[in-house]
Amino acid sequence: MPAWMDMCATLLDPVLGPLTRWRPDVGIAIVALAVAVLWVLIRRVLVNQARLRRASDDRKRLRALMRLALAQGNMADVRRYRRTWRMIRRRTRRGRWLAGAVSLVLLGLGAGWCAGRLGYYAPAPGEPVEVRLAGPASAAGSIVHIVPVEGLSADSWIRRMELRPVAGEHGGTAAPAVAVWHLSGSAAETPYPLLLRRAEGTLRHALWVGVQGRLDPVVRHGGGWRTRVMVEPVRLFGPVGPAAVWGVPGWLIGYVLLVFVMAGLLRRLLGVR
After folding, report:
1. Do residues 24 and 118 lie in contact, with contact meaning Cβ atoms separated by under 8 Å?
2. pTM for this predicted structure
3. Domain ranges of the chain
4. Mean pLDDT in the chain?
5. CA–CA separation, 201 and 183 (whole Å)
6. Residues 98-151: tens digit of each pLDDT
7. Where is 41: in which H helix or E strand?
8. Is 172 helix (H, G, I), strand (E, B) or coil?
9. Which of 120, 187, 208, 209 could serve as a FRET partner for 227 with CA atoms 20 to 30 Å apart?
10. Beta 120-121 vs 232-233: how paired, if at all?
11. Which residues of 22-57 are buried (b: 16+ CB within 10 A; e: fewer)?
12. Torsion of the alpha carbons at 131, 137, 142 and 145, rounded to the nearest 10
């Protein structure tokens, strides 16, 4: 997933990058509208619309003929009409499959870009943001600190790693060692370099404040160590609604629903089958 998001960001940042200056929920809606428009255009180009219209008319005629043949008890004609129906379906299915595959790739590209750039609200200037360092249970009791950074303030730069039980696999619990800081800073065009010192070495995490779409909320450093910036996720309907449904991010559900609804409306409006 991170690799997919990085690829989507590389491909789409030149086009969609300006949307990071907007509210994330508005940006996601605009991306969904753009994907829906491209989806309909792809279907119009890759699928022979004239053939689909003729096939639709032929199927309507075949339905009427099959009903008449069934009423007359003529099963030979019913079987012949069904063979013709299947042949029409096979001939029209190929273009639809190609258009559907291209559209799904487009849907995934938009979702990947939104996940990396618009799936959360960036830390606001002057507002405290929670930064967590998690490590193996053997690190409990050790002292860690963040090197003070100009422009950032903290409740304390030094912390002791403490065991904190969390839900584990198969209903069990795991107890990683965790240290928590609350930092705040002013908006900056460059990230604040967080250097977390521990006995085994230094961990690095770039903290963006007031800049949407640049922060990597979770950084895995290997050996069971992980830093996390606790950002607020974008919800199903922007600022309201659930943050996730059955583990699926709320913004992703809203994005997919918007794409399908708007694509359906555009197809009906433009007469695209």
Report:
1. yes
2. 0.77
3. 2-120+250-270, 129-231
4. 85
5. 22
6. 788 888 999 999 999 999 899 899 899 999 999 999 999 889 999 999 999 999
7. helix 24-46
8. coil
9. 187
10. antiparallel
11. eebbebbbebbebbbebbbebbbebbeeeebeebee
12. -20
